Amino acid sequence: MTGSRIIGTGSALPRRIVTNAELAQKVDTSDEWITARTGIRQRHIAEPDETTSTLAIAAARAALADAGVEASSIGLIVLATATPDNTFPATATKVQAALGCNGGIAFDVAAVCSGFLYALATADSLLRTGMAKRALVIGAETFSRILDWEDRTTCVLFGDGAGAVVLEAPLAETDAGSPGILGTRLHADGDQHDLLYVDGGPSSTQTVGHVRMRGPEVFRHAVVNLADVLREVLEDTGVTADQLDWVVPHQANARILDATARKLGISPDKVVVTVQDHANTSAASVPLALDTARKDGRIKPGDLVMLEAMGGGFTWGAVLLRW
Ligand code: ACO
């Protein structure tokens, strides 16, 4: 049976844009290095009055408007973030309060850059069991708040933002062409913790900590894991790589996107790339890219769209859906 359907998308970005050239005035780096190694040209960085919840609320409102549905119809909010406003309660509950749809289910998931995929799969499962009829699935981050701005190997790579989708329970009757989620695979490998992590937290250091990463190792794992999980979802669903209309990947590095697409024989023209404008926004990157490609008319009804991401943990996953 075809799973839940995305009926609206939205996104929000902080007001302030920081270009590579501006960053190079504060950090020992250059526009040439960042562009050549990552494809990133700029990122949005939150101002003091902008938080993960304010971005999430703006993205959620945009997704509701796009879907043409009222906030009161939302019975489930799943918000993926590694940078919540508070250690608790969940940032999802702040979104719920702002939208005025209290009483349903609201919680956060922590799977870092794969967070939106984990959140989407969780929401789809809950909708399939009848726990709610309509959900908001959000990826929202203010990664700038956990960056070590003295560490040029990490601080140039990330940005802030939020993306959201309205997800509706599966149709009662579906056929091969029906819109909805066709296949999902999620994975984690806790042995790879030390390659990408934050060196703080409430229970360990009582601090927020900073992002630490062994970039070249992460790069190698990303290409292998992402190609493998895409193959798994294609096999599960009987869809071939050349039947895909769009791949919407986590936007970490243009070279990871190129290498993964090449491994699977997917044309670069079918890969949605926003990393040049947003940098790596962790859990927000897939829904931000999805919203971009839908609003500019690339993704159309009936299209086969593959979402994929990998992040700290490691965690990784892919979701195939028909738009
Ligand atoms: N500016 C200038 N020079 C730099 C910078 C910088 N910002 N950062 C590192 N360098 C230098 C290094 O010091 C090194 O110098 P050396 O040769 O004198 O020692 C040189 O550049 C090369 O460094 P490498 O780390 O080998 O560079 P690499 O080509 O691997 O690129 C990068 C680094 C961009 C981090 C790459 O490894 C990468 O993208 N990895 C994936 C990491 C990632 O995207 N993580 C996000 C989360 S996980 C995910 O989303 C999949």
Verbal overview:
With 323 residues, the chain is α/β, with parallel strands linked by helices. The protein has helices at residues 20-23, 31-38, 52-67, 91-99, 115-128, 152-155, 215-237, 254-264, 275-278, 285-295, and strands at residues 5-12, 16-19, 42-45, 76-80, 105-109, 134-142, 160-168, 180-188, 196-198, 211-213, 246-249, 304-311, 315-322. It has a five-stranded mixed sheet, with helices on both faces. The protein has a four-stranded mixed sheet with strand order 8-13-12-11, with helices on both faces. The chain has a two-stranded antiparallel sheet with strand order 2-3. The mean pLDDT is 97. The chain binds acetyl coenzyme *A. Acetyl coenzyme *A binds next to helix 2, helix 6, helix 7 and strand 12.
Gist?
The protein is of the alpha/beta class and 323 residues long. Helices cover 32% and strands 24% of the residues.
Tally the structural domains.
2
Q: Which compounds are bound in this model?
A: acetyl coenzyme *A
Low-confidence stretches: none
Shape: globular
Helix content: 25-40%
DSSP strand (E) fraction?
15-25%
Q: How many beta-strand elements?
A: 13
- Please state the structural category: alpha/beta
CATH superfamily of the largest domain: Thiolase/Chalcone synthase
- Seen as an oligomer or otherwise, the chain set is single chain
* Largest sheet properties: 5 strands, mixed
Briefly, what CATH class of the largest domain?
A: Alpha Beta
CATH topology of the largest domain: Peroxisomal Thiolase, Chain A, domain 1
Q: Distance between the terminal alpha carbons, to the nearest Å? A: 15 Å
CATH architecture of the largest domain: 3-Layer(aba) Sandwich
* Strand neighbour order, sheet with most strands: 1-7-6-4-5
Mean pLDDT: 97
Q: What is the number of helices?
A: 10
